[in-house]
Amino acid sequence: MLTVSDLDFSYQMDGQRVGILxxxxxxxxxxEFVAIQGPSGSGKSTLFYILGCLLRPTSxxxxxxxADLSKLTGDQAAYLRNHKIGFIFQQFHLLPRATVLDNIMLxxxxxxxxxxxxxxxxxxxxxxxxxxxxxxRLQHLPNQLSGGxxxxxxxxxxxxxxxxxxxxxxxxxxxxxxxxxEILRIFDELHAQGRTIIIITHDSEVAQRCxxxxxxxxxxxxxxxxxxxxxxxxGTSSAMAMPSNWSNSGLLLSIKALPGAVRNLIRxxxxxxxxxxxxxxxxxxxxxxxxxxxxxxxxxxEGFEAxxxxxxxxxxxxxxxxxxxxxxxxxxxxxxxxxxxKPLRRLxxxxxxxxPVLANWQNTVTAGGRSVSExxxxxxxxxxxxxxxxxxxxxxxxxxxxxxxxxGLVCVLGSELATQLxxxxxxxxxMITVSVDAERSLPCRVIGVAMPQKTNQEWNRPNxxxxxxxxxxxxVSSYGGSQMYQFAVQVxxxxxxxxxxxxxxxxxxxxxxxxxxFMVDTEGTxxxxxxxxxxxxxxxxxxxxxxxxxxxxxxxxxxMLVSVTERIKEIGLRKAVGATSRSIRLxxxxxxxxxxxxxxxxxxxxxxxxTELMIFGATKFVPKLKFEWVLDPFxxxxxxxxxxxxxxFSGMVPARRAERLQVIEALRAE
Length: 670
Ligand code: ADP
Ligand code: MG
Prior knowledge:
With 670 residues, this protein is an alpha+beta fold. Helix content is 45%, strand content 19%. The protein is built from 21 helices and 23 strands. The strands form 4 sheets. Strands 13, 14, 15, 16, 17, 18, 19, 20 and 21 form a 9-stranded mixed sheet that branches. Strands 6-7-8-3-9-10 form a 6-stranded mixed sheet, sandwiched between helices. A 4-stranded antiparallel sheet has the order 2-1-4-5, covered by helices on one side. Helix 17 (524-566) packs across helix 19. It is rod-shaped. The model has no long low-confidence stretch (mean pLDDT 85). It binds adenosine-5'-diphosphate and magnesium ion (MG). Adenosine-5'-diphosphate binds next to strand 1, strand 2 and helix 1. Magnesium ion (MG) binds at residues 44-45, 169.
């Protein structure tokens, strides 16, 4: 079963080699009951670890059923330890917070790469426990058992996988003579069942009961017989072939590792909850801050759009500073509707609405003997102007194309002006007289009153204006006043206002050369600046939230690191009974992922609640703000991605550390 040839082993200590085992040669046949005896410190445990594939020899060869142990991959070694060898450690090495049943079943949960039925494992563990007299102790914890009982649990665990080789390191070393005799009786029984047993002991009485005694002294093993008389290896390394249900799928292993990870977190309830708090706050902050940032931005931008973001005003004036040498095809003396403005819509399809704007500054309005002149402005526009500047009607209606065509003697009043003139009495249908300049005045009928308008151009005074058809305005004005120097445009929602403005300007500059000067005003610039500011504001909010999430992540990272350090022994034991490095890594990773996921769900819930609460609070202070449910999918996505990122980030280093742990160092750790 086992062939050890020319085995050397030395520990590396402070750069120096300390030789422990020296030229060891022996063979163990199937079904033998062998004792390895020797004084304390002679290297018995070291040999035990080498035979159990937990430690690699410095040189020489150990073969198990014909397979060279030094040639096994990590996965193969894990499989071998799990299926072929049952370990019984001197210090029992039970999981302190797991029940007797769970301790016995430990080996059956590994290697995780193999599918196994839990039900069968429970049945088998119960049967073995009953045979070892532990039937009524299954739900006890190890510290509720006597030393002899603990050792029997360890033996039961070693028997779980029906191993053909039992390796026991001083199994009676920590027991009184009565318990020791009981344990030895169990070994006799196992031997009678045909198992190969190697007991390490320094007790001669124990050794006497075995078929054969190997003695280790000063690094040399006596009793192994003549090396040249050893039998050739039998069997092939195919004995170590992985079973066909061995799966390397990370996803599958993660799913299998999840219940254990959750159980572990629940076992450390208080610590887990405290650690989760950091992530809960972090995720809640990220969700709330991003949602609120987006909410504020949208609200402010909506306000801008109500004022007409997609509006632009084009102004053109004759160029008085033109030099005599500047010649041009056409002279600019104001825009002409038929030749300048009408074709624009065809040239620039992004223009949605277009209206000439003729404006006068100082006007006086008279109606029924009452006169108003403060801030009153007369403007000549067309039927599209109301839509361009978002004028809504409070009473009556806006100018129609018919009015514009026929120079109708009609007007629409700004809300403030209507109140001043008619003092709350109905104004639609009334006649008013507007002074156009010193000589001329214009009588017209009020057909509508506009709603009060907000503007961020206070000088514009939209609420004290009188709008008349521009054709009428031109007809009653002096020559200079009838020239059209301005027009307003609304572009289609998907078009770029500033770009359209530049194109229109370029068009007129080309058309009129240096005879005119053209300017474009848009609110687009202001809007763009505000948008930029709001974006910075939102990013700042989110950055602060992410910082708090980072702090939470560091918290989890710390806890996982501490937890790995605390559980070094446990991890070593899990590896010894057949956990592959990969499954240990995934197990730790799943713990941090599970922690983050739980914290994330609570965090998303509280972040959402916080957002709604803040919006609700804001509606109490800002009367115009209506409460609404905001579920920002972008913020949600960021929150979910963050949870996974933090889980990975905080679990990665501890998981790597756990994966790299050397079984021996881990088992020996205090
Ligand atoms: P035994 O089990 O026979 O009492 P061990 O195999 O545990 O002896 O140890 C053999 C020798 O190796 C001892 O002298 C011990 O001090 C030394 N030793 C054990 N582990 C280490 C280690 N990790 N590094 C250096 N020396 C070690
Ligand atoms: Mg020892």
